[in-house]
Design a protein that fits this description.
Chains A, B: Belongs to the LysR transcriptional regulatory family. The structure is a homodimer. Helix content of chain A is about 45%, strand content about 20%. By secondary structure, chain A is α/β, with parallel strands linked by helices. Chain A has a domain of about 110 residues: Periplasmic binding protein-like II (D-Maltodextrin-Binding Protein, domain 2, 3-Layer(aba) Sandwich), CATH 3.40.190. In chain A, strands 3, 4, 5, 6, 9, 10 and 11 form a 7-stranded mixed beta sheet that branches. In chain A, strands 1-2 form a two-stranded antiparallel ribbon. A two-stranded parallel ribbon of chain A has the order 7-8. In chain A, strand 7, helix 10 and strand 8 form a beta-alpha-beta unit.
């Protein structure tokens, strides 16, 4: 068998983001940890991590991390059956898209954690990168908008996140006093999450408006809604997040215009929604807790999300 | 002078995250854009970008981006004085720490944008990386907790973000029924934003608890509070964000225990706060709009943040 002491040193150094912190975590000296990793590399005849531009595993290192995480998951099943073996909590490393993490995810897994003692290690990624992390074995599960699982994994449709084009009433008055027209949309700044966010593009395409169009870039779900509330732009906002912010009234003191009497955000195009389907991907052989989380998400998905366009798909 | 057509191709390809999108943005074919960048590299005798593992500027490319951004800022001053020259909006690229972006930043700049037509391009970074981006010229300003400006920049103290250790009442009942003791803190899962977040460590040090301690990792400000509200762990939460979530009551339907009658989150250690000072860093020669934004932030900082520990520092 592999020498798991060496493998553990690799896992902890990368988890903790450095040799010093990794050593502290393991209760070892930094040089002991460094020697373990050197020994691992000597046995394998290849480096397992690179130190610059930042600490990161090599492809071989990633493969080892993948293996170590699978072993951990299997171990935790074993510990669950034989509590006498002792041992710590289960750690589950998952990649979640930013809007899910900012909206339905914490509440949905709250109940799960009442039953299972599990520590989550969450990574915020959008779909392509999330699936790459699945493939690399860097995460045991992910939520993204692609239905196609990577090799060794399964995917399940959870539901759709519903987006509406929203802006503050003050913004509406400034840019859309004569209606939401193509001309006005070419002038009014949108808010875009990042280079991969095409939701605003899809909204504008309905009006025949092509890029380039003026836009702010804001890679934070809460910041995105914050900019809309503050009247800097309009953007496609998850319905649930908007409802929450609307009920909150935090901007009242800043811009107490007559338009704000009812809602802090209003719909540019009432009735128009974009539904983004969300899929849960997980390793096939991920152990009992990952299976239980899958069951939990499939049971609860409907409560938090709009229905998927077609029948639920499982692959 | 430099050939700014070539430089613009570089800027747009990197801004848009690819040759195809960059070309669309400029209204050119992909091969025309590719040729411009090749010509730029041929003239300079060095590559300006690398394509893998992902599209990124070389150090020389970064230097050129820096220069291009400064030229743009100066141009926009010129356009402000001579509107006949026409031209687009000013783009301001800034790095903001996640908690600021999720809390006070959108409201604070909302007013600024009523007066200045500026499009923000925000990058979420914590301090070391943010200052590195300043040094590289990748951003014109940043908010971080270090007072020391990089070369060619200035920094100003804005105020402090005040953090309290908070958890849901259900979590308190589960882990701290017998009080917040070192023994209980060794069992109760914390929530940690990422490897650089030491706030929970500082809180635990007060009780003599050393790492390792059980924790979730959640690199999203809103997700962080969401996990606390859902009873998965405790963590250091910005006071303003907590106030907002407390007034919101979004978890009422999930866990309507008697403890939730008043607040969704309660204080583990009433009266204990950690104040994280925040500094605004900006290029010295950033043009009129950057100067105006600096004035605006200095005037308004006090409204959104707690006072800095010492007198306001400017360097």
């Amino acid at each position: 068998m592999l020498d798991y002491k060496l493998l553990e040193a690799l896992v902890v150094v990368l988890d903790q983001g450095g040799f010093e912190r990794g050593a502290r975590h393991l209760g070892l000296t930094q040089s002991a940890v460094s020697q373990r990793i050197k020994l691992l590399e000597a046995r394998l005849g290849q480096p397992v991590l690179v130190r610059s531009p930042r600490l990161a595993p090599t492809p071989l290192g990633r493969r080892l991390l993948n293996h170590a995480q699978q072993v951990r998951l299997l171990e935790s099943d074993l510990l669950g059956e034989m509590p006498a073996l002792g041992g710590g909590e289960q750690r589950l490393r998952l990649a979640i898209n930013a809007d899910s993490l900012a909206t339905w995810w914490p509440e949905a897994i709250g109940r799960f954690c009442e039953h299972y003692r599990v520590l989550f290690e969450l990574v915020v990624e959008d779909q392509e990168v999330a699936l790459k992390r699945m493939r690399d074995g860097d995460v045991a599960g992910c939520i993204c908008d692609s239905p196609t699982p990577v090799q060794g994994a399964r995917s399940h449709g959870l539901g759709s996140m519903r987006y509406r084009a929203l802006a503050s009433p003050a913004f509406m008055a400034r840019y859309f006093a004569d209606g939401v027209t193509p001309e006005a949309l070419r002038q009014a700044p949108a808010i875009v999450f990042g280079p991969d966010d095409r939701l605003q593009h899809r909204f504008l395409a309905r009006y025949g408006v092509e890029p380039p169009f003026p836009h702010h870039l804001c890679p934070s779900s809460e910041g995105f809604v914050g900019l809309a509330l503050a009247g800097l732009g309009y953007g496609m906002v998850p319905e649930r997040q908007a409802e929450r912010e609307l009920s909150e009234g935090r901007l009242q003191e800043i811009d107490p215009g007559p338009h704000l009497a009812d809602g802090r955000l209003v719909d540019l195009s009432p009735g128009y929604v974009i539904d983004v389907p969300l899929y849960w991907h997980h390793w096939r052989q991920g152990g009992r807790i990952l299976d239980a989380l899958t069951d939990h998400l499939l049971r609860l998905g409907d409560a938090w999300l709009a229905p998927l366009p077609g029948p639920k798909r499982q692959r």
